[in-house]
Amino acid sequence: MSISPAHPVTSSTRTRSRSVAVSRAVAAIVWAATYLGALHGRTVRSSDDAPLLVGLLLAGYPLIDAAATESERRRDTTKTTLRVDLVIDVVASAGLLVAAISLHARALLLVFGAWAVVSGLLQLARAWRAGGSRRVRLPLIISGALSAIAGIAFAASASKDIAPLAGLGGYAVLGAVLFLLWSYLARTGARHTAS
């Protein structure tokens, strides 16, 4: 994920990062509700076709991260990792679009899982190395680690009989909650620093 937990220089950059995190979380929650509504509780076999709308919505999910990454990249054009994140998000979205068009549930799980692993590890590394309070960064560290673990689980589940497509919606909601928590901790941490 894209939000940079690095210790910002000014209160306006801190506010902008928190705003991007909240916007990203809200978009993820709206996406998850739409996605789970489109899935409508259906059970899909891994070897069967996934509903086209479900596949298209999955292809759109990495674009939420891409938009947040681009917003952060405009704020700090020197961060190479943000450019790498942006490329990974766009490539993942394109891969999911190809899998969605093929309508194959197994392919969707494999591509989404691979993207979740890579983006989670990048987020984990960035959050771990960033300056500032580790307590404030903890939700982003947890989010990155859980993304990587979930990605491995999604990819591994492609070989199972039933595709756990509903779990992808839960993944988005959990990530959104952790980003909202980070935003809250960053805001309260900034208030304590200012006082």
Explained architecture:
The protein has a two-stranded antiparallel sheet with strand order 1-2. 43% of the residues are buried. The chain has helices spanning 11-39, 52-75, 80-102, 105-129, 134-157, 166-194; strands spanning 44-45, 162-163. By secondary structure, it is mainly α. The protein has one domain. Residues 5-9 have low confidence and may be disordered.
Keywords:
195 residues, two-stranded antiparallel sheet, single chain, 2% strand, mainly alpha
Question: What would a concise description of this structure say?
Answer:
Helix content is 79%, strand content 2%.
Layout of strands and helices, then pairs:
Layout: H1 11-39, E1 44-45, H2 52-75, H3 80-102, H4 105-129, H5 134-157, E2 162-163, H6 166-194
Antiparallel strand pairs: 1-2
Helix pairs in contact: 1-2, 1-6, 2-3, 3-4, 4-5, 5-6
